[in-house]
Amino acid sequence: MTVIKQDDLIQSIADALQFISYYHPTDFIRAMRGAWEKEESPAAKAALTQVLVNSRMCAIGKRPICQDTGIVNVLVSVGMDVQWDADMAFEDMINEGVRRGYTHPDNVLRGSVLTDPNGARANTKDNTPAIVHTKIVAGDKVEIEVAAKGGGSEAKAKFAMLNPSDSIVDWILSVVPTMGAGWCPPGILGVGIGGTPEKAMLLAKESLMEPLDMHELQTRGASDTNEELRLELFEKVNALGIGAQGLGGLTTVLDVKIKDYPTHAANKPVAIIPNCSATRHVHFTLDGTGPAQFTPPDLSEWPEIEFELGDDVKRVNLDTLTPEETQSWKSGDTLLLSGKMLTGRDAAHKKLVDMIDNGEDLPVDFTNRVIYYVGPVDPVREEVVGPAGPTTATRMDKFTRTMLEQTGLLGMIGKAERGKIAIDAIRDNKAVSMIAVGGAAYLVAKAITNSTLLAFPELGMEAIYEFEVKDMPVTVSVDASGESVHIEGPKIWSAKIAERIPAVQA
Fold first, then answer.
1. At residue 58, what are phi and psi to the nearest 5 degrees?
2. CA end-to-end span of the chain
3. Is 368 left (phi over 0), alpha (psi -120 to 50) or beta?
4. What b-and-e string marks burial along 134-169, b requiring 16 or more CB atoms within 10 Å of the CB?
5. Statement to judge: residues 465 and 368 lie in one domain
6. Backbone phi, then psi, for 477, in 5-degree steps?
7. Nearest to 182 by CA among 433, 454, 491, 486
8. Sheet holding 131-137, edge to edge
9. Which of 189, 316, 325 is nearest to 257 (CA)?
10. How confident is the model at residue 506 (pLDDT cuts 50, 70, 90)?
């Protein structure tokens, strides 16, 4: 009989969450490095470079890879011969570990979990509660997988109850393009097949915790139907040309993982969940000898590269920005921004639009300004602001026309594509939308030299701030004519990939 102490579980969960906040799994870095080495699209290559540079910086500086430090998922297998030396309930112990992990003073992690999800949506402040899945198994140990899952990738989860004769490949290829770039590709596509609807979703989530081995699978070949399906999906999803950050390129997924389970004869449940470029998870075992120990990865696994911009980069002074200047930018242009910008995301936009609708004066003047869709991590030590990567711009689409037409706003910065209603509003108002690279939050934060709270302090990380930045890299995603790099880039690269397929087969 193995005895597991309460404090050992709590400390292990807390340490695991700190560990994965700044260390990518080594297998993920190897796969990302391989994608970077073979990428031919300049825009995608630059995005992959930023992700890898950011990852190495975080590993050295022990600060979060992404400003979205995730909702905690804990997958637990408890041996039947385990006894607990504890006075707290099992999930209460896990949540105490989450609380300690997210409020660690040397590396404070962002609290993103809200109670009353369809009402007040109040932040719990410490990222509790976790999502816990527990199995009781044979044995005398506790096996735990801890993951911090970003909201952008979770938002792109898909489920379908297919007919038994329906093609899983056809369905997945039909829905992946609809996921856009908000899940920050390239990453991993987790697929769950069978069981019931909730079982299929759990299978997809569990599959994302498995080691990345696509290169090895390609080398040795498939040995069962799931491996055949993995190989087919890997080739065909990448052939879509979506690429890094949706900019168009050779790699959209680094691996496809599949788990299945027996199902009813009338059903074929299928779920897909992506993991983003901020993939964060770690496995550990508790055997009664104390808390888990986590070994830092070898930094030599990361390529020693510098983030350098080409000669065609345009330097922009945000403090003197005019409509005429923004209208000269073209989709795909690389800009280096310096000067003052505003911040704000979902909650702030909702308050602003409500104030406009009610005829109230706004707390901030947006005339000829740029707004950054961001919810940063709290700063520590000498930092001006913690990791401050972009959130998904698409969620602000429904507010875009009002903001452009009623406030004098010139431009917006987020990640991922803009939808039709936003593109139409941008074109009609000759405005501009830009992207910063998702998964490069610490790198972006290094460009921020000052931060001032301006409005809505009650919103916490969603309040409106004024950031002063120096040489913050962005790409024009939608220009004043309405041309979108997220529409044109994948078209170009899917065509280029299609041209190569016959030549390879010949």
1. -70, -40
2. 62
3. left
4. eeeeeeebbbbbbbbbbbbbbebbbbbeeeeeeebe
5. yes
6. -95, -40
7. 486
8. 131-137, 71-79, 142-149, 281-286
9. 189
10. very low
Q: Residues 6 or more apart from 473 whose CB is under 8 A from it?
A: 50, 307, 309, 334, 335, 336, 337, 436, 437, 447
Tens of pLDDT, residues 164-202: 999 999 999 999 999 999 999 999 999 999 999 999 999
Sequence-separated (6 or more) residues with CB below 8 Å from residue 170: none
In a domain, 502, yes or no: no
Same domain, 262 and 329: no
Reply yes or no on whether the pLDDT at 274 is more than 50: yes
Are 143 and 159 in a shared domain? Answer: no
7 plus 119 within the same structural domain: yes
Q: Do residues 455 and 319 both lie within one domain?
A: yes
Q: What confidence score (pLDDT) does residue 279 get? A: 95
What's the pLDDT tens digit per position in 318-332? 999 999 999 999 999
pLDDT at 7 over 70: yes
Predicted TM-score (pTM) of the model is: 0.91
CA distance 503 to 481: 37
From 121, 147, 173, give the residue that closes a domain: 147
